[in-house]
Hints:
This protein is of the alpha/beta class.
Amino acid sequence: MMDRITLYASVGGVPRYLELLDPQLTLTQNLLRVLSSPMMLEDADTILREQFDKPHLYAAVLESLARGVTDSKQIAQTLGVEHREVSRCLKMLERAKIIRWEGPATARFPDTSRLGHYRIADQYFLFYFRCLAPVRSLIERGQTKEGLRQLCESLDGYIGAEIFPGLCREWLYRQWRKLPFHPQYAGAHWGEGTQPIDIVAINHEDHGILLGKCNWSKRPIGEVDVRTLIKQAATAMPQPAEEWNVSYAFFSRSGFTRSARQAIGNAKCFWVNFDDLDSGLQEDAPSRGRGKLRV
């Protein structure tokens, strides 16, 4: 499954990108095909040039978002342009569905929350600016092997931060019958002075909330991870907290320690390993409540 996640991270579900892959080849060979494709290297430039009047500025804004700079004033300062120009770019990119506004999952309406920020919604653009653009010059100079080495280094962090959490949220939607409630929305959570939480699934009407951690690292989830999430739950809970039914979920590429399972105590908890995630994602997605999950 790890190879499939890596290839999904690289090409998403776009049919013409999927055609680059050959199931008979190894992961490395398929990644070389992706890297060597003029289509993958040039589509970002082509799309921005066709849709926007200042493609270089739009590309710079997307590059900033890909690096995690989400404040429009900070982006403007970094690029040395007027703030209103960046604001216009963001609005136009949102209209084109290349980026979206996303708020903390516990907000009543995350898509319009004032605590939200812009993030890249189109997976090709996210992959391009996070992983492909930094090695593009190497590829164009014919240094494909070095480009592949650097790509693989950045891919692991990209998958852990963006792709794996999205797949875990999708698992919650598809396996909702196993949960204590039917999630209306699942997304990340953050707040002032608090550490972000990978997953919060919520149903405001049923007062159900699930908090989760997504572990893409090569070490198993341990006791410290469990206790940290339990502590974070206190800061993420909508008020009054006592009205909510709380459960937890841990998703791990590398399993779980015995002490982690013990640390959760009597709380309702789901332990989802790679095989569980894989089988759960094979099931058809049910209809969803308010909001959509975006991988």
